């Protein structure tokens, strides 16, 4: 099993999870983070660190967010690894719980 970043991260991109990841499995896009399923060791450390509550175990991804499992795997192949914490995107605190953000995902 791996972990999956879901919709709550879009347009927020909190990177608290990056600090605790022991294997550098996070990849960074313009306004979203993803987890490389081939690198994730299922340590669970990132889940508690995510202020957006956007990270789920693959088996626990909400039904309406299941497309993010494949999206994480696909985007991890083309986006660079992120190795250190950065400031969240402007307005992240206001947008974190906004539903329906998939349309705003920048690839």
Short description:
By secondary structure, the chain is of the alpha+beta class. It has helices spanning 16-20, 45-49, 67-76, 92-95, and strands at residues 3-5, 26-28, 33-35, 55-57.
List its salient traits.
Alpha-Beta Plaits, alpha+beta, 11% strand, 107 residues, 4 helices, single chain, two-stranded antiparallel sheet
Describe this structure in words.
The chain has one domain: Alpha-Beta Plaits. The chain contains four helices and four strands, in the order βαββαβαα. A two-stranded antiparallel sheet has the order 1-4. The model has no long low-confidence stretch (mean pLDDT 97).
Helix content: 10-25%
Helical stretch count?
Answer: 4
Enumerate the strands of the largest sheet in spatial order, edge to edge or round the barrel: 1-4
Structural category is alpha+beta
The largest β sheet comes out as: 2 strands, antiparallel
Question: What is the class in the CATH system?
Answer: Alpha Beta
> What is the arithmetic mean of pLDDT?
97
Structural domains: how many: 1
Tell me the strand percentage band. Answer: 5-15%
In N-to-C order, the SSE pattern is EHEEHEHH
Helices and strands in order:
Layout: E1 3-5, H1 16-20, E2 26-28, E3 33-35, H2 45-49, E4 55-57, H3 67-76, H4 92-95
Antiparallel strand pairs: 1-4, 2-3
């Amino acid at each position: 099993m791996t972990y999956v970043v879901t919709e709550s991260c879009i347009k927020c991109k909190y990177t608290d999870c990056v600090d605790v990841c022991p294997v550098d499995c996070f990849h960074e896009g313009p306004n979203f983070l993803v987890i490389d399923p081939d690198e994730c060791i299922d340590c669970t450390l990132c889940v508690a660190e995510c202020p957006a509550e956007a990270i789920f175990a693959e088996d626990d991804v909400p039904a309406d967010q299941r497309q993010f499992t494949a999206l994480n795997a696909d985007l991890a192949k083309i986006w660079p690894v992120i190795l250190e914490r950065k400031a969240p995107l402007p307005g992240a605190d206001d947008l974190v719980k906004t539903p329906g953000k998939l349309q705003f995902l920048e690839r």
